[in-house]
Amino acid sequence: MKQEIADKIAKAGILGMLIIDKAEHAVPVARALLKGGVNTLEIPLRTPAAMEAARIIKKELPGIVVGVGTILTVDQVKQVADIGADFAVSPGCNPKIIKAAGNVGMPFSPGIATPTDIETAIENGCRILKYFPAATMGGMKHLESMGAPYFHLNLKYIPLGGVNMTNAESYLRSDLIIAIGGSWIAKRELINAGNWDQITQNAEEAVSLFKKIKSEKL
Fold first, then answer.
1. Annotated catalytic residue within 58, 130, 156, 187
2. Which of 42, 58, 156, 187 is catalytic?
3. CATH topology for the 3-210 domain
4. Is residue 156 among the annotated active site residues?
5. What is the DSSP string of 56-109?
6. 23-49 per-position pLDDT tens digit
7. Edge-to-edge strands of the sheet including 180-182?
8. pLDDT band at 77; cut points 50, 70, 90
9. N or C end of the chain: which has fewer CB within 10 A?
């Protein structure tokens, strides 16, 4: 991953993961998050509207760092690059996808859940990894144990999957974590209901926690 993008993700600390069913919701939800202090997003390709939503946000709100997730094919890598996304992530660690991302200069974080995944990512030049699904794999305790043999490589992780305000602090306090992400800030039902105020409030709560922990580390 390009250092510039890595620095932006680290500075943000919080990634809003958005499952968008209607492209018309893209800008309003992004603005709601931005109002609450969240300026970095991941839009997984789980709905027909996802790619278009990512394109619109990147065009209309260029100050937001836009990532696209659930990258499963080489063609999707090319499409994500074409819309100008800042980075991409996948749920698994597929060398073909990593290579395709490298070929088009797309900053990329593969998903890892086992030591074999981590070693595959390392072999393919990745140093920022998506820890997924974080909660059901054992949370921070599991990541610390699994990541211990690779600590000297200074790998960084973005936990997603079951991350929320009840466990966010356990991740954010670890030096292994570059940022955390999840859909709890802007749940699918909140987006579909147009409840932008609640999304802003959730974003403010998450950002406040991140800033508090960051200040305590200084």
1. 130
2. 42
3. TIM Barrel (3.20.20)
4. no
5. HHHHH-TTSEEEEE---SHHHHHHHHHTT-SEEE-SS--HHHHHHHHHTT--EE
6. 999 999 999 999 999 999 999 999 999
7. 108-109, 87-89, 65-69, 40-44, 14-17, 180-182
8. very high
9. C
